[in-house]
Target: Probable hydrogen peroxide-inducible genes activator
Amino acid sequence: MEQNLPFDLDALLVFGKVVESKSLSKAAALLGMPKSTVSRKLAKLESDLGIKLLRKNTRQLTVTDLGEQIYAHAVNILSEANHVRALVEGSKQQPQGELKVAIPVFVGIDYASRVGATFLRRHPHSRLDIRLVDNMVDPVRDGFDVVFGTGPLQDSTLIARKVFSLELFLCASPDFLRRLAEPVTEPVQLNDLPFIDFGFAGQRRLTVARNKRRHELTPPVRARANNFQVCKQYILEGLGIGAMPTQIICTDELREGALVPVLPQWTPQPLDVHMIYPFELSFSALISAFYEAACEIITENIARA
Model:
Protein backbone atom coordinates (compact mmCIF):
# COMPACT_ATOMS: atom_id res chain seq x y z
CA MET A 1 0.00 0.00 0.00
CA GLU A 2 1.57 3.24 -1.16
CA GLN A 3 1.65 6.22 1.15
CA ASN A 4 2.43 9.39 -0.82
CA LEU A 5 0.26 11.86 1.07
CA PRO A 6 1.33 15.52 0.72
CA PHE A 7 0.06 16.26 4.25
CA ASP A 8 -0.10 14.86 7.75
CA LEU A 9 -3.19 12.72 8.38
CA ASP A 10 -3.08 13.62 12.06
CA ALA A 11 -3.36 17.31 11.12
CA LEU A 12 -6.42 16.51 9.01
CA LEU A 13 -8.11 14.95 12.02
CA VAL A 14 -7.19 18.00 14.11
CA PHE A 15 -8.78 20.21 11.46
CA GLY A 16 -11.97 18.15 11.63
CA LYS A 17 -12.18 18.55 15.41
CA VAL A 18 -11.69 22.35 15.09
CA VAL A 19 -14.54 22.58 12.58
CA GLU A 20 -16.85 20.54 14.82
CA SER A 21 -16.13 22.56 17.95
CA LYS A 22 -15.86 25.93 16.11
CA SER A 23 -13.01 26.86 18.45
CA LEU A 24 -9.28 26.22 18.63
CA SER A 25 -9.41 26.18 22.44
CA LYS A 26 -12.27 23.67 22.62
CA ALA A 27 -10.65 21.45 19.98
CA ALA A 28 -7.38 21.53 21.91
CA ALA A 29 -9.16 20.50 25.11
CA LEU A 30 -10.99 17.64 23.35
CA LEU A 31 -7.78 16.43 21.74
CA GLY A 32 -5.76 16.74 24.94
CA MET A 33 -3.07 18.91 23.39
CA PRO A 34 -1.95 22.55 23.80
CA LYS A 35 -3.74 25.21 21.74
CA SER A 36 -0.38 26.18 20.26
CA THR A 37 0.03 22.63 18.88
CA VAL A 38 -3.42 22.79 17.28
CA SER A 39 -2.56 26.13 15.64
CA ARG A 40 0.77 24.81 14.42
CA LYS A 41 -0.78 21.70 12.88
CA LEU A 42 -3.46 23.75 11.11
CA ALA A 43 -0.90 26.18 9.74
CA LYS A 44 1.25 23.30 8.49
CA LEU A 45 -1.79 21.62 6.87
CA GLU A 46 -2.73 24.82 5.03
CA SER A 47 0.88 25.23 3.94
CA ASP A 48 1.11 21.64 2.69
CA LEU A 49 -2.18 21.94 0.77
CA GLY A 50 -1.50 25.48 -0.45
CA ILE A 51 -4.99 26.73 0.46
CA LYS A 52 -6.83 28.48 3.28
CA LEU A 53 -9.09 26.21 5.31
CA LEU A 54 -10.27 28.64 7.99
CA ARG A 55 -11.08 32.31 8.35
CA LYS A 56 -10.27 33.63 11.81
CA ASN A 57 -10.88 36.93 13.54
CA THR A 58 -11.06 37.99 17.17
CA ARG A 59 -14.67 36.87 17.59
CA GLN A 60 -15.32 33.86 15.37
CA LEU A 61 -13.90 31.09 13.25
CA THR A 62 -15.45 30.11 9.92
CA VAL A 63 -14.61 27.51 7.30
CA THR A 64 -13.81 28.34 3.67
CA ASP A 65 -15.80 26.70 0.87
CA LEU A 66 -12.91 24.43 0.00
CA GLY A 67 -12.38 23.79 3.70
CA GLU A 68 -15.96 22.50 3.95
CA GLN A 69 -15.29 19.97 1.19
CA ILE A 70 -12.08 18.82 2.82
CA TYR A 71 -13.89 18.56 6.16
CA ALA A 72 -16.39 16.13 4.59
CA HIS A 73 -13.50 13.84 3.67
CA ALA A 74 -11.94 14.30 7.09
CA VAL A 75 -15.17 13.03 8.69
CA ASN A 76 -14.94 9.83 6.63
CA ILE A 77 -11.30 9.36 7.59
CA LEU A 78 -12.13 9.86 11.27
CA SER A 79 -14.94 7.32 10.99
CA GLU A 80 -12.61 4.75 9.43
CA ALA A 81 -10.01 5.43 12.13
CA ASN A 82 -12.62 4.76 14.80
CA HIS A 83 -13.56 1.49 13.07
CA VAL A 84 -9.89 0.45 13.13
CA ARG A 85 -9.66 1.32 16.82
CA ALA A 86 -12.82 -0.65 17.59
CA LEU A 87 -11.48 -3.64 15.66
CA VAL A 88 -8.19 -3.53 17.56
CA GLU A 89 -9.88 -3.17 20.95
CA GLY A 90 -12.24 -6.00 20.10
CA SER A 91 -9.34 -8.26 19.11
CA LYS A 92 -7.70 -7.57 22.47
CA GLN A 93 -10.81 -8.81 24.26
CA GLN A 94 -11.38 -11.84 22.02
CA PRO A 95 -8.67 -13.01 19.59
CA GLN A 96 -10.10 -13.53 16.13
CA GLY A 97 -8.86 -14.21 12.63
CA GLU A 98 -6.43 -16.77 11.23
CA LEU A 99 -2.98 -17.61 12.57
CA LYS A 100 -0.49 -19.45 10.37
CA VAL A 101 2.18 -21.27 12.39
CA ALA A 102 5.27 -23.31 11.45
CA ILE A 103 6.45 -25.84 14.06
CA PRO A 104 9.56 -28.03 13.63
CA VAL A 105 8.98 -31.75 13.48
CA PHE A 106 11.33 -32.28 16.44
CA VAL A 107 8.89 -30.44 18.73
CA GLY A 108 6.51 -33.30 18.06
CA ILE A 109 3.04 -33.96 16.65
CA ASP A 110 1.58 -34.55 20.11
CA TYR A 111 2.78 -31.17 21.38
CA ALA A 112 1.69 -29.28 18.25
CA SER A 113 -1.77 -30.86 18.25
CA ARG A 114 -2.36 -30.22 21.97
CA VAL A 115 -1.29 -26.58 21.68
CA GLY A 116 -3.51 -26.11 18.64
CA ALA A 117 -6.52 -27.74 20.27
CA THR A 118 -6.10 -25.67 23.46
CA PHE A 119 -5.83 -22.45 21.46
CA LEU A 120 -8.88 -23.20 19.28
CA ARG A 121 -11.01 -24.33 22.21
CA ARG A 122 -10.34 -21.13 24.15
CA HIS A 123 -10.81 -18.76 21.23
CA PRO A 124 -13.82 -19.80 19.15
CA HIS A 125 -13.49 -16.85 16.74
CA SER A 126 -9.97 -17.86 15.72
CA ARG A 127 -8.72 -20.09 12.90
CA LEU A 128 -5.42 -21.96 12.93
CA ASP A 129 -3.15 -23.32 10.21
CA ILE A 130 -0.22 -25.34 11.63
CA ARG A 131 2.49 -26.72 9.33
CA LEU A 132 5.14 -29.14 10.59
CA VAL A 133 8.45 -28.22 8.96
CA ASP A 134 11.77 -30.04 8.75
CA ASN A 135 14.01 -27.00 8.29
CA MET A 136 14.29 -23.44 9.55
CA VAL A 137 11.78 -21.07 7.94
CA ASP A 138 11.48 -17.30 7.89
CA PRO A 139 8.09 -15.87 8.94
CA VAL A 140 8.19 -13.04 6.41
CA ARG A 141 9.78 -14.80 3.45
CA ASP A 142 7.79 -18.02 3.89
CA GLY A 143 4.44 -16.44 4.72
CA PHE A 144 3.94 -17.44 8.36
CA ASP A 145 2.68 -15.31 11.25
CA VAL A 146 4.69 -17.37 13.75
CA VAL A 147 7.51 -19.89 13.50
CA PHE A 148 9.14 -21.96 16.22
CA GLY A 149 12.91 -21.96 15.99
CA THR A 150 16.23 -22.34 17.78
CA GLY A 151 19.43 -20.37 17.81
CA PRO A 152 20.11 -16.62 17.62
CA LEU A 153 17.98 -14.33 15.46
CA GLN A 154 19.49 -13.34 12.14
CA ASP A 155 17.04 -10.49 11.45
CA SER A 156 16.59 -7.46 13.70
CA THR A 157 13.01 -6.94 12.42
CA LEU A 158 11.91 -10.16 14.15
CA ILE A 159 10.95 -10.78 17.76
CA ALA A 160 11.72 -14.03 19.61
CA ARG A 161 9.96 -15.10 22.81
CA LYS A 162 11.30 -18.21 24.51
CA VAL A 163 8.66 -20.89 24.91
CA PHE A 164 10.79 -23.51 26.61
CA SER A 165 14.30 -24.91 27.00
CA LEU A 166 14.99 -28.53 26.23
CA GLU A 167 17.35 -29.76 28.95
CA LEU A 168 19.57 -32.41 27.40
CA PHE A 169 21.60 -35.34 28.74
CA LEU A 170 24.21 -37.57 27.15
CA CYS A 171 23.25 -41.21 26.78
CA ALA A 172 24.09 -44.46 25.03
CA SER A 173 22.98 -48.05 24.96
CA PRO A 174 24.59 -50.47 27.46
CA ASP A 175 25.76 -52.58 24.52
CA PHE A 176 27.63 -49.63 22.97
CA LEU A 177 29.37 -48.82 26.27
CA ARG A 178 30.37 -52.48 26.80
CA ARG A 179 32.14 -52.49 23.45
CA LEU A 180 34.39 -49.55 24.37
CA ALA A 181 38.00 -50.21 25.30
CA GLU A 182 37.65 -48.09 28.45
CA PRO A 183 34.82 -46.39 30.40
CA VAL A 184 33.84 -42.83 29.46
CA THR A 185 34.91 -40.71 32.43
CA GLU A 186 36.03 -37.42 30.85
CA PRO A 187 34.36 -35.16 28.22
CA VAL A 188 37.45 -35.13 25.95
CA GLN A 189 36.91 -38.84 25.28
CA LEU A 190 33.83 -37.94 23.26
CA ASN A 191 36.08 -36.44 20.57
CA ASP A 192 37.02 -40.01 19.60
CA LEU A 193 33.59 -41.65 19.81
CA PRO A 194 30.80 -41.79 17.19
CA PHE A 195 28.11 -39.21 17.90
CA ILE A 196 24.42 -39.12 17.00
CA ASP A 197 23.68 -35.47 16.25
CA PHE A 198 20.37 -33.70 16.37
CA GLY A 199 20.48 -31.59 13.21
CA PHE A 200 17.53 -29.18 13.15
CA ALA A 201 19.54 -26.23 14.44
CA GLY A 202 22.30 -26.85 11.91
CA GLN A 203 25.80 -28.11 12.57
CA ARG A 204 27.08 -26.87 15.92
CA ARG A 205 29.72 -27.72 18.47
CA LEU A 206 28.85 -29.87 21.45
CA THR A 207 29.27 -27.86 24.65
CA VAL A 208 29.07 -29.56 28.04
CA ALA A 209 29.26 -27.86 31.43
CA ARG A 210 29.86 -28.88 35.03
CA ASN A 211 29.51 -26.07 37.55
CA LYS A 212 31.74 -23.33 36.06
CA ARG A 213 33.79 -25.66 33.88
CA ARG A 214 32.97 -25.93 30.18
CA HIS A 215 34.23 -28.07 27.34
CA GLU A 216 33.62 -27.49 23.62
CA LEU A 217 33.86 -30.79 21.80
CA THR A 218 33.90 -31.93 18.18
CA PRO A 219 32.93 -35.61 18.22
CA PRO A 220 32.80 -37.37 14.83
CA VAL A 221 29.16 -37.40 13.69
CA ARG A 222 28.09 -40.91 12.71
CA ALA A 223 24.49 -39.93 11.96
CA ARG A 224 22.36 -36.80 12.01
CA ALA A 225 18.58 -36.38 12.04
CA ASN A 226 16.20 -33.51 12.73
CA ASN A 227 13.92 -35.67 14.83
CA PHE A 228 14.65 -36.84 18.38
CA GLN A 229 12.76 -40.11 17.87
CA VAL A 230 15.03 -41.04 14.98
CA CYS A 231 18.12 -40.08 17.01
CA LYS A 232 16.86 -42.12 19.94
CA GLN A 233 16.48 -45.20 17.75
CA TYR A 234 20.04 -44.85 16.47
CA ILE A 235 21.30 -44.65 20.06
CA LEU A 236 19.21 -47.67 21.09
CA GLU A 237 20.77 -49.61 18.19
CA GLY A 238 24.22 -48.95 19.69
CA LEU A 239 25.43 -46.69 16.88
CA GLY A 240 26.88 -43.98 19.10
CA ILE A 241 26.46 -41.54 21.97
CA GLY A 242 23.84 -38.79 21.66
CA ALA A 243 22.20 -35.91 23.50
CA MET A 244 18.51 -36.39 24.23
CA PRO A 245 15.87 -34.26 25.98
CA THR A 246 15.80 -34.98 29.71
CA GLN A 247 13.19 -37.69 30.31
CA ILE A 248 10.53 -36.25 27.97
CA ILE A 249 10.88 -38.95 25.29
CA CYS A 250 13.28 -41.34 27.05
CA THR A 251 11.38 -42.08 30.26
CA ASP A 252 10.57 -45.72 29.47
CA GLU A 253 14.02 -46.49 28.04
CA LEU A 254 15.76 -45.06 31.11
CA ARG A 255 13.45 -46.98 33.46
CA GLU A 256 14.04 -50.23 31.56
CA GLY A 257 17.79 -49.67 31.20
CA ALA A 258 17.72 -49.66 27.39
CA LEU A 259 19.43 -46.25 27.59
CA VAL A 260 21.92 -45.21 30.27
CA PRO A 261 23.32 -41.74 31.03
CA VAL A 262 26.90 -40.97 29.97
CA LEU A 263 28.92 -38.44 32.00
CA PRO A 264 25.81 -37.56 34.03
CA GLN A 265 27.68 -34.83 35.91
CA TRP A 266 28.33 -33.01 32.60
CA THR A 267 25.32 -31.23 31.06
CA PRO A 268 25.00 -30.35 27.36
CA GLN A 269 23.95 -26.80 26.52
CA PRO A 270 20.11 -26.57 26.58
CA LEU A 271 18.25 -26.17 23.31
CA ASP A 272 16.12 -23.02 23.59
CA VAL A 273 12.95 -22.99 21.50
CA HIS A 274 11.51 -19.59 20.64
CA MET A 275 8.34 -18.30 19.05
CA ILE A 276 9.48 -15.93 16.30
CA TYR A 277 7.32 -13.36 14.54
CA PRO A 278 7.64 -10.00 12.74
CA PHE A 279 7.93 -6.86 14.86
CA GLU A 280 4.76 -5.39 13.32
CA LEU A 281 2.75 -8.28 14.80
CA SER A 282 4.11 -7.72 18.30
CA PHE A 283 0.72 -6.49 19.59
CA SER A 284 -1.30 -9.29 18.01
CA ALA A 285 -3.82 -10.77 20.43
CA LEU A 286 -3.81 -14.00 18.38
CA ILE A 287 -0.06 -14.44 18.82
CA SER A 288 -0.24 -13.67 22.54
CA ALA A 289 -3.00 -16.24 22.98
CA PHE A 290 -1.05 -18.88 21.05
CA TYR A 291 2.06 -18.18 23.12
CA GLU A 292 0.09 -18.74 26.33
CA ALA A 293 -1.18 -22.09 25.05
CA ALA A 294 2.32 -23.13 23.93
CA CYS A 295 3.84 -22.38 27.34
CA GLU A 296 1.03 -24.12 29.20
CA ILE A 297 1.28 -27.36 27.23
CA ILE A 298 5.06 -27.68 27.60
CA THR A 299 4.61 -27.26 31.37
CA GLU A 300 2.00 -30.06 31.33
CA ASN A 301 4.31 -32.28 29.25
CA ILE A 302 7.18 -31.88 31.70
CA ALA A 303 4.86 -32.61 34.63
CA ARG A 304 3.56 -35.76 32.92
CA ALA A 305 7.11 -36.98 32.24
In short: The CA atoms of residues 197 and 224 lie 5 Å apart. The chain has three domains: 9-88, 94-163+272-303, 168-269. The domain at 168-269 is CATH 3.40.190.290 (D-Maltodextrin-Binding Protein; domain 2). The radius of gyration is 30 Å.
